């Protein structure tokens, strides 16, 4: 017997479905709004102590004079280094698998050749003279003796001199900028300005003091760099950074937007959950995120696999840097291998599949050894790696700074093999006054070191656009 529902019962059923559907839609909308609000939340600017003390016990009389400084590779240090080098020469090296390149880490054969240059061909006295080709200084800022290179150009009165703070990262050093300093301090056709260059060693890196207490994260270092520029008499200035140098510079621009006249970065990035989410969702339809440079962000599976494979060092630095530091400080071969392998990975992703690591024709062994010598001669590998742990331990402060947009006009140089790539619309979440970008089809993570001419050209170009931006306001 056929049974039919009455019209009233069917209507009631439809009404119930409509109500349930409406509730679901409203719930999804409310949840989406909540997620969007959380991801778009902008906290208040954190209050930082611009006089926070990072040195030993504070005394009433602190010498804040700017003192000339000279880099010295002492005979005792060189003798100790050469003694330790003998240990590696007696060490039975494991054979690298055929065609493995650097995929297992350091290629033993390639590294043996590199290390031999340090043992037999690195001229310590000549390299010491090279390091001192520019004027070096130290001054005490917040309890720490901060080292910096300071080069002032010689120009006619009609040429403007713009102060420029150059900030390095890890495992770099001030050595990265030796090729660009002469280019930035020389007047060039078509530009009515040139730069007065200040290149500090970050606290705990190279020739700058390390702190004696916990908490010196990138934002706190930004305060030290600001106070250094104030000490030098610069109330307004330009900043440039890559790697940790970018992070410190970004914090500096966020904290002191009236002092930073412009920001040039070669590692433009947005470190927020919103950016991460858009990147992950973009894997479903990559061209919606970035049409022109999709291959620098996707495919998602390959990018995630790369970061998982290459980020083990980051986790170690962010958790137990002092343990690793003992091993690296004891062995020049260990230190050289560890730093060299990071240059392989960050210069070109294909380098690890080649026996030479992709470094031949990019950096000379002498240049790479200079940078390693900065860490060995000063014994700062441990204190430099601590910056990762301080960043992690102070994630609330660093995360807040990342969420706050900075009005400082910004220019980004994006090289082909930079570790991170963000579309311009994402960059504008953090840098709403992103004046422009230069996206090149060459170069890697260590832009100033690898491509000094391209780097210097782009700094001039970016600063010219920033000055035009200020004029138009």
Description:
This protein has 473 residues and is α/β, with parallel strands linked by helices. The chain has one domain: Rossmann fold (3-Layer(aba) Sandwich). The protein has helices at 7-39, 75-90, 108-121, 124-131, 181-184, 218-231, 244-255, 273-282, 286-289, 300-310, 312-319, 321-330, 332-347, 365-378, 381-393, 395-403, 424-430, 447-450, 452-472; strands at 67-69, 136-141, 144-151, 160-167, 193-200, 237-241, 260-265, 410-414, 434-439. A nine-stranded mixed beta sheet has the order 1-2-3-5-4-6-7-8-9, sandwiched between helices. The longest helix has 33 residues, at 7-39. The protein is globular. The protein starts with 6 loop residues before the first helix and ends with a helix. 40% of the residues are buried.
Largest sheet strand order: 1-2-3-5-4-6-7-8-9
Low-pLDDT residue intervals, each spanning 5 or more residues: none
Strand share of the residues? 5-15%
* Order of H and E elements: HEHHHEEEHEHEHEHHHHHHHHHEHEHH
Describe how the helices and strands are arranged.
Blueprint: H1 7-39, E1 67-69, H2 75-90, H3 108-121, H4 124-131, E2 136-141, E3 144-151, E4 160-167, H5 181-184, E5 193-200, H6 218-231, E6 237-241, H7 244-255, E7 260-265, H8 273-282, H9 286-289, H10 300-310, H11 312-319, H12 321-330, H13 332-347, H14 365-378, H15 381-393, H16 395-403, E8 410-414, H17 424-430, E9 434-439, H18 447-450, H19 452-472
Parallel strand pairs: 4-5, 4-6, 6-7, 7-8, 8-9
Antiparallel strand pairs: 1-2, 2-3, 3-5
């Amino acid at each position: 017997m056929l049974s039919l529902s009455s019209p009233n019962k069917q209507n009631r059923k439809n009404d119930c479905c409509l109500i349930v559907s409406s509730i679901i839609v409203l719930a999804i909308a409310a949840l989406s709004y909540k997620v969007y609000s959380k991801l778009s939340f902008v906290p208040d600017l954190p209050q930082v102590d611009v006089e926070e003390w990072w040195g030993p016990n504070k005394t009433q009389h602190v010498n804040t004079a700017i003192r000339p400084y000279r880099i010295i590779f002492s005979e005792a240090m060189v003798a100790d280094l050469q003694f330790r080098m003998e240990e590696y020469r007696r060490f039975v090296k494991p054979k690298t698998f055929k065609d493995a390149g650097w995929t297992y880490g350091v290629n033993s054969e390639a590294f043996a050749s590199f290390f031999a240059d340090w043992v037999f061909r690195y001229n310590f006295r000549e390299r010491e003279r090279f390091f001192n080709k520019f004027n070096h200084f130290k001054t005490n800022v917040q309890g720490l003796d901060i080292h910096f290179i300071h080069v002032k150009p010689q120009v006619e009165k009609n040429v403007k001199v713009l102060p420029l703070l150059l900030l390095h990262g890890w495992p770099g050093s001030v050595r990265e900028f030796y090729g660009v300093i002469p280019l930035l301090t020389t007047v060039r056709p078509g530009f009515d300005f040139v730069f007065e260059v200040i290149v500090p060693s970050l606290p705990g890196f190279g020739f700058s003091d390390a702190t004696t207490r916990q908490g010196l994260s990138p934002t706190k270092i930004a305060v030290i760099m600001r106070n250094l520029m104030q000490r030098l008499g610069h109330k307004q200035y330009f900043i440039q950074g890559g790697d940790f140098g970018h992070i410190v510079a970004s914090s500096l621009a966020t904290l002191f937007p009236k002092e930073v006249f412009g920001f040039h970065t070669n590692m433009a990035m947005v470190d927020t959950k919103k950016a991460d989410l858009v990147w992950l969702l973009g894997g479903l339809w990559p061209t919606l995120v970035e049409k022109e440079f999709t291959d620098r962000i996707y495919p998602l599976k390959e990018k995630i696999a790369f970061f998982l494979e290459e980020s083990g060092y980051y986790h170690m630095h962010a958790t137990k840097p002092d343990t690793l530091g003992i091993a690296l400080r004891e062995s020049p071969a260990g230190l050289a291998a560890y730093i060299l392998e990071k240059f392989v990975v960050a210069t070109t992703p294909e380098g690890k599949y080649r026996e030479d690591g992709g470094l031949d024709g990019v950096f000379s062994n002498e240049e790479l050894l200079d940078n390693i010598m900065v860490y060995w001669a000063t014994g700062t590998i441990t204190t430099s790696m601590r910056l990762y742990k301080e960043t992690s331990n102070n994630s609330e402060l660093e995360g807040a700074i990342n969420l706050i947009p900075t009005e400082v006009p910004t220019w980004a140089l994006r090289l082909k093999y930079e570790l991170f790539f963000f579309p311009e619309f994402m960059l504008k979440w953090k840098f709403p006054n992103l004046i422009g970008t230069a996206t090149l089809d060459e170069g890697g993570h260590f832009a100033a070191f690898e491509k000094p001419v391209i780097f210097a050209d782009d700094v001039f170009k970016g600063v010219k656009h920033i000055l035009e931006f200020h004029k138009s306001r």
